[in-house]
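Fold these two proteins, one after the other.
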Amino acid sequence: MNEPWRRVTAAAVALTLGALVACDLSNRGVRTWWDQHSLTGAVVTNLLVLAVTALIIDEVVARRQRRQRAVSVAVQGLIVYSQARRAYDAVMAVGDDESDRGGATEELRSFASMLLTASPSLFDDPVARSFLEQVQRLSGSMFRAVSASSRGPLNTTARTSLAADMSELQTAAQPLLARVSTADQSLLAAP
């Protein structure tokens, strides 16, 4: 059951239960009617208890799944962040040597492939989506920088722009890093 319907159903059951209890306590005619129709009262009571129990269990399970998914999404985002960091380091190392550019191009290809694979799972989580937008911004900047510097090292403007984009990506990665246990953070955090 999706979130709005779960809340509406929980509110309806709670209001019904509250109204029945209030009527039973305040109105003698209602109390007498329920006493004379004990089977109906038992069925209604059991259905309400079942509904409340199902809603509580449903909410507990949904909350647990959201928490587990949040950690899974965070780990995947941090793996993408590590690859982005490697690609960034390779792009920043581009100099006059053609092998530097080839290494940067290969890292960018690996990064793009990983980003395409991870994007669907990162898109559904609002925090991860913000991170994804920043990663995409950085990847575009890196591809532009490498293609613009086809005959030499990166210029100072490109290096400054890439450093600013990487700084923003590090900021966007912090909420994802906070979702991971402290024991695992050192394994996933980039230098």
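Now the second one:
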Amino acid sequence: MPGVLLDMAISLDGFVGNSDSTDPGLYDWYFDPPAQSKAVIDELVDTTGAIVLGRGAFGTGEDAEGWDDSPYHVKHFVLTHRPPAKSMNGPIEFVFVPDGVQRAIELAREAAGEKYVTVGGGADVARQLLAAGLVDELQLHIVPKLLGAGVPLFAGLEPGSAAGLSLTKTRVVDSPVVTHLRYRVGASAG
């Protein structure tokens, strides 16, 4: 049975976004994919049964003209202490979870059935899930850009930290504009 997949685009120097909230172009490949990347995207869409994201990532999608064009027509679980006052209308059902990452993953696993719970946004949410040992697989889309600064994905998860991560590479898919790396996540033997 698939588990929890953390799926994020990242710059070559380890950032998932700019600190000034401008778009650094880390997902340009997703919207105009080369053939190698299209296969990765199609697999991700087909195997995702539920999505977990943070309030910031939800807001980014909301600001980018909404969620109507998303190919992920599955329940989205949004970690937040600030649920919106009005309900969302559209093809995607959003469930706002104020009770932390553990609860969001529990709810998403129920909704996902035999498919993956895909974590799709927010470095903070990603770090919380990694530190709590709730991620089974990690898929990084390495974009050949050096941002120099911004929002680091792995801040606070140095070797020997509470996260105690061990990564086993399971796949590499290279394309002209992005390299897709997939890992199985386990506890380190230390």
